[in-house]
Structures are given as C-alpha cells and as structure tokens.
UniProtKB/TrEMBL annotation:
This is tubulin-glutamate carboxypeptidase. PROSITE patterns: PEPTIDASE_M14. Keywords: Carboxypeptidase, Hydrolase, Metal-binding, Metalloprotease, Protease, Zinc. Belongs to the peptidase M14 family. It comes from Trogon melanurus.
Length: 1023
C-alpha cells in the first residue's frame, strides 16, 4: 500500500521510476500471491491512473517512454491476474489512452509491442474489447500484422494475440467479416504456413488460427469462411503437419475450426421418430410416424437451419474435443449439487398410496409362500416333486393381474393357461440342462436321447402356442448360414448339405437344417438350451412381428478361456477419423453414398451389391435402422429410436455378412446421443462369429480397433426432436477385421441378453434346482403393453419340516426385493441378475444361508417389451419406466404399476422389504456402485444446516455398501452416493424409500467396461 499510493500522487520522475523499479522487482519474483495482493490494494487502478498521467502530453511532444515502458510491463503483468481489469480500464477511461499510445508508436516497434501487450489484456474483457473494436483497434492491428518476415516478429505476435482477444467479442467478429478481414487472415495464414518451413514461428501461425476460430463463432463468419474456401485451405495446410508432434497446437486448432464450420445436416432418414409404431390404449396423442413427404422434409430442413443459426454462435466451446476427451463424469452426477432436495418436509414425508387400499388384496396371490400348506413335505420324491414344480400347475405359480391390453388380446399358453388346465410344459420333459456347480466346475453334456426328447417337446410347445394364439405365434427361422459350400461340407455331414436350401426370402425354413444344427450342438454351455430358446421365442410378441432368430441367441455362447486387456487408444486416432469425415465434404467424389440396408424403405436398400456388406437387424433385441456405404470398406450406421419415440439412441445389435478376410472395415454409428462414452476409455464392442461358433468356439468377443467417440455435424432441430432446443449427435467409430471370409457376424454394443434368453434361463433354473432345499415359484406379475408376460420369482429355502416353528420361521423371513432391466439397453443388468439367480439356487453354503434367512422377490426383467423391440431406455409407451414410479399408469406402465402394488401390499401387511435393489448399467463410469437415499447427507451436501436433535436417521443404509466394498472386488464405495435429487424423485429407488419406508433402497449400477480399482483394475484386464 505504501508503494502504490505515493506513486499515484508523485510528480517527481525519479520517485516514479524508483517505485516502478521496486514494484517490478517485487512482482517478478515469487508466486501470484504478490500480484493478487497488489490488486486487492487498488494496484490496477493506480497503475491505470499513472498511465493516463504519463501519456498526457501535447501531440508534438512525445511521451516519456522511460516511465511508460516499465508502467506498460507492469500493467500487462497485473492485468493478466486481475479478472476485472477490463472493467477498470473502462472506468478509468483508459481505452483511448492505450489506443492513442499504440498509434503514436507505430514507427517504434519496441514501444508498440508494450502497448499491444496491454491492449491484449484489456480485450480479454468482452465489453472492453467491443469498445476497443468500435474505436478502431482492429484497423490498427491489421496495419501491424504483416506477411511472413523475420523482422519485428515479437511485435507481429503481440498484434496477432491482441486481435485474437478482440475477436472473442461477437460484434467485433461480425465487424471483421463485414470489413473483409477474414479473407485477409486466411491469406496471412497461408503465407506464414508456406514460408515457415523450419517451424520457428508456430505461435504466430496458431495466433492467426485463433483469430479465425473466434470469427467463425458467429454464423456470418462460418458462412464467409466456407465461401472463401477456408475448409479446403486449412484441410490442405495440415496434411504435411500430421507426422510432426510439435505441430499439435496447430493441428488441434485447425480441426476445431473445420469441425465448427462443417455445414450442419439432418440425419439421412425421413424422420427421426422410430421406424416402429405401437398404438397406445386410450391415448389420442399417439400417432404413427410421418412418412417423410417432400413438404415435411423441407420444413425439417428449415427448422434445422434456424436451429443451427440460433445456437451456432454459442456452440464454439463445445468443439474443444479434437484430441481431448470430455470429463468422464455423467451429466446426471454433475446435476447433484444444484438438483438436491432441500425441503426437509418433503424428504421426511410419507405420501399416501396412489390407489385404494382394497385394491391391494389382489396381490396376495403373488405371495404364495405366506399361505402354502407344504403337503409335499410328508411324502416327497423327485417324480412327485417334478409335477408340483410345473409353471402352470398351481394357482400360486400362474396368477397374473391382467391389464387393459391383456383383456383384449389373446396370449401365448404360458400366460393364458387356466389355473387348473393341464398341458405340455417344459418342466414335464426328461431333458435336463445341468447346472454349473458353485463349489466345483462340472463338465456339462447333453446326451443324444435327451436331445431327441427335447426337440419333440419344443415342437409340442410350439404347436400349443399356435393353437392358443395363431396370430401371436411365429414361423421362426434361423438366419442363413455362411454360404461357403466347401466350409459347409466340412462342418456338416454330406447328407445334411441337401437340407440347406434357402427360400427366396433368404431364411432357412427347413426343419432338417435346424435338426442338423441341434445334433451338432455340444450341449456344454451352462444354463443354455437352444431347444428351450426356440420354444420360448415362438411365443414372443414384437411390434415388427419378428420372424427370424439371431444365431448367437439360439446357439448360445461361452466366455473365452483367456483375459483380454483394455484397448489402448492410439495417439491421434480421433483426429484422423475427424479428418476422414471432413474429407467427404472437400472430396465428395470419393463418397459412394449407397444405401445397403433401410428399415423404413426396404425397397431402397441395395443388399448384395458387389463388394458390399449385407446387414440385418429384424430379430429380438436387434437395432439397426439404416446402413450407408460411404467408401468401399466404410459404412455409416443409424440406430433406430425407441418405439413411439424420437430419441434414446445407444443400443445396437445387428448382423453383417459378406465380408472379406483381413480387410479393415470402418463403421460409424452416427446418431449417438450421450456426450461421452466408455468407448473413449478402452471399451470395445462385442462380436460373435457364426463360423467360429460352429467350429466349437461360440463366443462373444471384445473386438474393434481405432475406436473413438466424438461430436459430429449432424443435428436434430427442435421441431423434429420434440424438445425446446435441437440436439447434437455423436459418432461412435470403430474399425474391424473379421476372422473369416464370407462369415456371418453379429455386432452389439454390449453382450446381448434377450427376453427369450431370460425365459429359457428361468426354465432351466427351475428344472435343475434342488426342490428339497430351494423353494421356487415363478408367477406372472402382469402382462405387458405388448402382450408379453413379466415373470415374478420367489426364492427362499424350503422349511425344515411341517412343524409349526419351522413353518413360522419360513413365513416370517424378511423380504428382499430385486429387479432389473427397466432400461432395455442396459443388458449388463440382466447378466448381473442372471448371476444372482444362479447363485441363489446353487448349493453354495452362503446361498443356502441366504435362502434360510430371506425371501427373495425378484422381477428379472421389468421392461420385456423394450428388450424385445431393441429399445435403449423406454417401453412401448415411449416413456422411461424408471421415471414413472410416482404415478404409474395401469394401462401404459403395467409392470411398474403392479410392481409398486406388490410393494404396497407387502407394506400393508407389515412385511415391507428389508432391502430393495434395482439393477442398472452405467455407460460412462467404471466399477459397480450403489445409489441410496439419506436425508442428512442430502442436506449436508446442499450446504443446509442440520439440527441433529430434530432430524434423526438410521445409518443402516450404509451397511450393505460397506460390506460389498469389503467382499466384492468390483465394488467401489467411493463411487456410491446417497443424495436425493429432485430430478430422481420419480425413480424406483426414491419412491420405495419415501413411500414404502424402505431404508435400504438402492439402485445398483454396473459398468459396461471394467474397473478402475481392485482385483479387476483396468490396467490388468477385462473380459
């Protein structure tokens, strides 16, 4: 303070110079704390006042540069740390002073350089920069910036950096475009780039690029840039820079400009709405998707243009990802701090039930364990027990609560079987699929006699399904096998080859072929039977009425006998992919643009073209809407939106055939929606080869190289997307070499787990459990909107005897309620649930103890319709079911409505679950972790005062996560959160915690891609 104020008031030159010298010494040493201290004591204002005083001379008389130069150096240094420096310059009316000094110093480059440093700092404030632009600062700077020269380089650099700072103001950018400066900047950049062969002036070249980058933040700038052939100029200029790592700053900036200026386009589809439409009961707003008429397309393109114009000026900062990955945090987690529920009354309230109490009585039938008489305990043999275990034979095993849709539509026999009706059932067959022991790994084999019996049983099941519901059952067929005749002869007996006669539609209808395949199946896949799968698949109801079965789901798979490391991302791979995309615009002659698969217009597809891959996705859980051949070995892929929706593009699962051997094919999924993905952090997609499977290696393998995920130039207008603002799309790009020529391969986002897979898995588990120890009841919670049944399982230990104490202990066991797959694209949730079920019915001592302590109520798939139809997040209603728990609609959200009803019933009889857990998958985080609910933690995180005498809370909600953190290698306690957000108030976790009073109500998130901690750490490997 004593050093600054005398400086303001002193008129003695020696005093001023001494003070400036002291300040220079003080501020040139140490950290920024000294500069911030000077700023806090009014140093910026004092220096600006001194500058105005020192520059106040009559025109003939030059200012005293012995004072001005150190003063300008100090201002430049202090101004860089002072966030309000621009405003202080305006308040001190120093903008004109600085510009005047610069103009008077045009003939003296040392003095001019110091003025330009201060000018750059002033322009960092947009308002001050705008004022400088109005007062002619840009014209001054363009006089200083010269073509390539080795003279006065420091001055040229300072002028370019000051101009870049000025152009952050959009009004300055528009002014620069209107005055023709953009073309001048392009010519200057070309000149410096061409002549700077030794790369000595990278900072000047990058400064010119920053000027172009800021100008193109405005729509007028982008249009002028395109009209000046800026795309071609910059694209060509960096081709000889890619091999030099020192030029990365230039390459990165060029790519940012090119991506920003790439003309925005709508997706090459008639409409962004799903190709599939499902009429909703009693819902007038549901309309079929538009047909994409010429007029509608024009309207959508107009909306897209208006959208790009309105948001383009503010999207520049979103293009900073050329070589930097976005933060590996979900948007949802970032919302926590400002989305927390801080109303204590809302957090502590217990809402009234959303339905009359008398309606809850119907759910009594879903709790047979509370009223079972256990007559079979008196005399029990395996033969007698097998009849008791049939899915349809007891009232307690088939009761379901019909929805409005189920009353109108017939259904498959597993859903509509009469309570007392008899009929062939999977449980009646002699065929057994052996379980894999948890204590020792057993080799599972199916014998030919059992195979024949099961084939006959599966056929009988299909006949029964057709008799009850001719419209709902299907003439299912396998997709055609690889067409290599020599390979086929090698794999099958010669007499089987004659049965391989594809019909004109390309589907294998011959039952002999299926029989041949089943005979070849080794039967050594734990918990899988192709016979059971076909029987279940025939009764599945889908919106597009699928007629084909994907080979991996029919044949099954096993894990590879080896571990695979995470994919290491090569340096520059995303940059190269983006440049390839830009090359399409600059060199359109290289683009083929042939549609080879189109779900909307099959007649427009051109499958089987010479040298072209063939795509297909019309099977259970399949999702591929369109495939466009871009170059000989490159394809753009478009995913289908969720049924009755125009969004939620993430899940994909499709078939590809006709590939060449050892050729790298590139695939670009161009309509992803999430802003980041684990594909940027080592994750690979999965691939299944039919040839490999038939050679005894049926495996889903992690595959693909050169994988990256980035924002592209496709946009969806607000009008087309149904939102307040349009949305951006992202590209998932990967390259792949297929293991065989003319193979049939399946590619998927993650390991698929279909509805038919789950149903057949339940059949196998039921059949192979130990009925003397495991109490198992499979019931139907309800019928889905699409006419498929939603299974409900009850698993616990059989009572030790019929003694009263044993039966009371059986009935009084606390409940644990588990459910999974409310989001269809989160197939990893189903695999975790599969492991849970296999463990619970196993002979493991811990599993036996759990069964004796708890009754497990399990809904293994809460959104069957979404899974069947290849959705990512929604049901057939187009709604995210995990946002419907507050007020579920019995017609539109039957599975949520009745799952909540069952929980209400358990609470009404004093048996609310001890633990509730909803299994999910997380696409942007690693490890396994839980979300729970806590009043205190929510208030603490929100910064609210918590009166512990008023607000008391049982911390038991932390017990289970802490246990898992100790015993489960993939679980990470630090990733868990117990905050209650407003935007999550309608999720299962929060509703069950608040309305049912379940303290331990969780959402369990499982990663799609490995772990960052513990035994399965990323640096090791993942499968």
């Amino acid at each position: 303070k004593s050093g600054v104020f005398p400086f303001q008031s002193s008129c003695d030159k020696e005093v001023i110079l001494n003070i400036l010298s002291v300040l220079t010494d003080l501020l040139s040493l140490g950290t920024g704390r000294r500069i911030h201290y000077v700023i806090s004591k009014g140093g910026s204002e004092a220096l600006l006042q001194a500058l105005a005083a020192a520059a106040r001379t009559e025109p003939p008389e030059p200012p005293d540069h012995s004072i001005l130069l150190p003063l300008l150096r100090l201002l430049a240094r202090v101004g860089q740390r002072d966030r309000k420096f621009g405003l202080k310059v305006q308040k001190a009316e120093a903008t004109d002073v600085i510009l005047s000094l610069a103009r008077r110093s045009l003939g003296h480059h040392l003095h001019l350089t110091h003025c330009l440093w201060v000018l750059r700092v002033c322009a960092s404030n947009v308002t001050t920069g705008t004022t400088l632009g109005i007062n002619g600062a840009m014209e001054l700077l363009f006089k200083v910036i010269t073509p390539y020269s080795k003279r006065h380089v420091r001055t040229v650099r300072a002028a370019i950096e000051a101009l870049a700072a000025l152009l952050k103001s959009k009004s300055n950018s528009r002014r620069a475009v209107n005055r023709g400066y953009l073309g001048g900047l392009l010519r200057l950049y070309q000149d410096w780039h061409h002549n700077d062969a030794s790369n000595n002036y990278i900072y000047i070249r990058r400064g010119l690029l920053l000027c172009l980058k800021h100008i193109t933040n405005v729509q007028l700038g982008r249009e002028t840039f395109l009209g000046s052939r800026g795309m071609e100029i910059l694209f060509t200029s960096i081709q000889d820079c890619l091999s030099c790592k020192n030029l990365d700053p230039i390459i990165t900036t060029v790519i940012q400009i090119l991506r920003k200026c790439y003309p925005k386009e709508s997706l090459p589809v008639a409409t962004v709405r799903s190709s599939y439409f499902f009429p909703l009961p009693g819902n007038a707003k549901s309309e079929p998707p538009c047909e994409g008429s010429e007029e509608e397309c024009q309207v959508e393109h107009l909306c897209l243009y208006l959208f790009s114009t309105s948001v383009g000026d503010s999207e520049s900062d979103g293009e900073e990802e050329a070589e930097k990955d976005l933060d590996n945090e979900d948007v949802e987690s970032k919302e926590e701090d400002y989305d927390l529920e801080t109303d204590v009354n809302k957090l502590r309230s217990r809402p009234m039930p959303d339905r009359p109490e008398e309606e809850l009585g119907q759910y009594e039938a879903l709790c047979p364990e509370l009223s079972h008489n256990f007559q079979e305990l008196e005399s029990e043999s395996e033969e007698e027990k097998s009849s008791e275990d049939r899915v349809e034979s007891l009232p307690s095993t088939l009761h379901f609560i019909p929805s409005a849709a189920s009353m109108k539509q017939p259904n498959c026999r597993w859903r509509n079987q009469s309570i007392t009706g008899k009929g062939p059932d999977l449980g009646e067959k002699d065929f057994k699929v052996p379980l894999q022991s948890w204590t020792r790994k057993e080799e599972c084999r199916w014998y030919q006699t059992d195979e024949k019996r099961d084939v006959a049983g599966a056929a009988q099941d299909a006949d029964s399904c057709q008799e009850e519901d001719p419209a709902g059952s299907h003439g299912f067929a396998l997709r055609p096998l690889p067409k290599d005749a020599a390979w086929y002869k090698k794999m099958f007996y010669p007499q089987c080859e004659a049965s391989k006669n594809p019909n004109p539609g390309g589907r294998l209808e011959s039952s002999d072929t299926v029989t041949s395949l089943l005979e070849k199946h080794q039967g050594d896949l734990p918990f899988h039977s192709p016979h059971f799968y076909i029987a279940r698949a025939k009764c599945v109801k889908s919106v597009p009425d699928f007629k084909d079965v994907a080979f991996p789901d029919f044949w099954g798979h096993q894990p590879p006998p080896y571990s695979k490391p995470m994919l290491e991302r090569k340096y520059g791979v995303q940059r190269d992919k983006v440049l390839d995309d830009i090359r399409r615009l600059i060199q359109p002659g290289d683009v083929i643009g042939r549609t080879v698969f189109d779900l909307d217009e099959p007649s427009h597809s051109n499958p089987g073209a010479p040298g072209c891959l063939t795509f297909f996705s019309k099977f259970e859980s399949g999702n591929l809407r369109k495939a466009i051949q871009v170059r000989e070995f490159e394809y753009d892929l478009i995913m289908n939106a969720d049924v009755n929706s125009n969004q939620h593009h993430q899940w994909f699962y499709f078939e590809v055939r006709g590939m060449k051997l050892a050729v790298p094919y590139r695939f670009n999924v161009i309509n992803c929606e999430k802003f980041n993905s684990q594909f940027n952090y080592g994750m690979q997609l999965v691939m299944y080869s039919v040839k490999e499977a038939l050679q005894g290696r049926p495996r889903w393998l992690r595959a693909g190289h050169d994988i990256c995920y980035y924002k592209n130039h496709y946009r969806c207008s607000a009008a087309a997307g149904g939102g307040a603002r349009g949305k951006f799309y992202y590209t998932l790009t990967f390259s792949m070499k297929f293991p065989h020529k003319d193979d049939v391969c399946y590619l998927a986002y993650h390991y698929p787990y279909t509805y038919s897979t789950m149903m057949s898995h339940l059949d196998i588990l039921q059949q192979n459990r130990n009925p003397k120890k495991v109490y198992w009841r499979q019931q139907t919670l309800c019928q889905t909107l699409g006419g498929n049944r939603c299974p409900l399982l009850t698993i616990t230990a059989m009572p030790e005897s019929k003694k009263r104490d044993d039966l009371e202990q059986f009935c009084n066991r606390p409940y644990v309620f588990l459910m999974a797959r409310v989001h269809p694209g989160e197939s990893n949730a189903s695999w975790v649930m599969k492991g849970t079920l296999e463990f619970l019915v196993s002979s493991d001592p811990i599993a036996d103890l759990l069964r004796k302590c708890f009754i497990f109520k399990i809904v293994p798939m809460l959104n069957p319709d979404g899974v069947i139809n290849g959705n990512h997040r929604c049901s057939l209603s187009g709604d995210d079911l995990n946002r419907q728990w507050l007020t579920p609609n019995s017609q539109l959200h039957p599975t949520i409505y009745h799952a909540k009803g069952l929980l209400y019933y358990l609470r009404s009889i004093g048996r609310a679950p001890l633990v509730f857990c909803d299994y999910h998958g997380h696409s942007q985080k690693k490890n396994v972790f839980l979300y729970g609910c806590s009043i205190k933690e929510t208030l603490w995180q929100a910064g609210c005062m918590v009166d512990t005498t008023v607000i008391t809370e049982d911390v038991g909600y932390r017990t289970l996560p802490k246990i898992l953190d100790k015993v489960a290698p993939a679980f990470v306690m630090n990733s868990c959160s117990f905050l209650v957000e407003k935007s999550r108030e309608s999720t299962a976790r929060v509703v069950v915690w608040k309305e049912m009073g379940v303290l331990r109500s969780y959402t369990m998130e499982s990663t799609y891609c490995s772990c960052s901690h513990g035994l399965y750490k990323v640096s090791k490997s993942f499968k």
